[in-house]
Amino acid sequence: MKRVFLIVMDSFGVGALPDANLFGDEGSNTLKACCSSGKFRAETLKKLGLFNIDGVDFISGVEDPMAAYCRLAERSAAKDTTSGHWEIAGVISHEPFDTFPHGFPQEIIDEFSAQTGRKVLCNAVYSGTEVILDYGEAHEKTGDLIVYTSADSVFQIAAHEEVVPVETLYKYCETARKILNKKYRVGRVIARPFIGRYPNYTRTPNRHDFSLKPFAPTVLDALKESGRSVIGIGKINDIFAGCGITETYKTVSNADGMNKTSSFLKNDFDGLCFVNLVDFDSVYGHRNDVDGYASAVAEFDLQLKEFIDGMREDDALIVTADHGCDPSTPSTDHSREYVPMLYYEKRMKSGVNLGTGSTFADIAATIAEIFGLPFPCEGTSFYKRIGLK
Length: 389
What we know:
Helix content: 25-40%
Radius of gyration: 20 Å
Structural class: alpha/beta
CATH superfamily of the largest domain: Alkaline Phosphatase, subunit A
CATH class of the largest domain: Alpha Beta
Number of helices: 12
C-alpha cells in the first residue's frame, strides 16, 4: 500500500517565468510579496527547502533541507487553475483557452437567456466582489443573472441565493457549459452565489466549477483504472470534471481542506489524495491582500507540521502550486510564475536540490513511477533522484 498526498497551494508562485512579459507579469513573485509582510511565517516550509529553491535569493534557506525541492515551469500556454492542475496531472495545454476581454459574444448571451428564461447583467471583465456590489441590487429587483469574466477563461454567474436557489444556479451553469462547448474552449463555468443586502453582500462557500473535461487521459485516470483510490479534496473534482476521481470532498476554507486531508492519514488507502487550497488565490491573491496571503501561509505552515508528524514511514507528500497571483502588483489577475515543488518522505536520506523542471508534468511522471504505472506524458520523473533509504 502506497499513499501519496499532493497539496496544491493555489497561486503560490515563486518568481516570474522567462516569458512572463508576454502575459504582462514581468517581475511578479508571489512568495517574495508574502515575505514582505510581518504576518509571514513558514518554518515548516523552510525546513522542507522552500527557500533553498533556485531563484529564491531574497531570504535565507536552511543548511540541510528535509525534502527534495525544485521549481517547475509551466509549459501550457496559460496561467490559470485548469491548465495548471491538468499539467500537474500530465496534460499540457499547448493551445490557450478562449478568453473574452470584451465580454461574451451576443450570440452566447442570447442563447443563454433564451434557455434560462432570464436576462443578463454586466457581461464584462469584472472583479467578483465588485460585480455583486455594482449589479447585486439590480439583480435582486429583476432576477436577471450577473454574468462576468476575468483574464482567465471563465464564464461566471453570480446570483443571490434568495433570488436564485443554489441548485437552480447550478443548472444554469450546466446550461452555459453546454452552450459554450458547441464553439468555444472555455476552461470553467463558475457558479458564484451570494447573500446579504446591498451594499453588504457576501459570497458564500457554495461556489461550484463546471470545467471542460481534460482532452487527454491524466495520471488520475491511470491510477483509477489500476484500481487505486484518487481522492479529491477541495475543487479537484470540479477542475477535472470528475474524470479519474474515485472520492470527492468539498471544503469551505484552507483550514477545512487541511483538516479533511489530515483525516485521511488515519485511513488505509492505496493511491493519491489530491488537494486544492483555494483561499490563497480567491480570498487573498485576487484581492491584493498581502498581509492576508502571508497570514494564510502561516496558518497552513502550522497545519503542515502536524500533517507531517502524522505521516507513515512510506507516505509521500508533494507540495506545489498551479500558477502565481502576486498580491503586491496592481493587477488582480493570476501571474505567470514558476511554482515550488517539495517532495518529502520520512525515509529520505536527506534533502536534494532538483533544480528547475521544464513542466509541471514532472509531478505526474513521478506519481506514475511511484505506482509503477505506464503513463506516457511530457514530464520527467524525479523519483529516483530523491534518495530513499
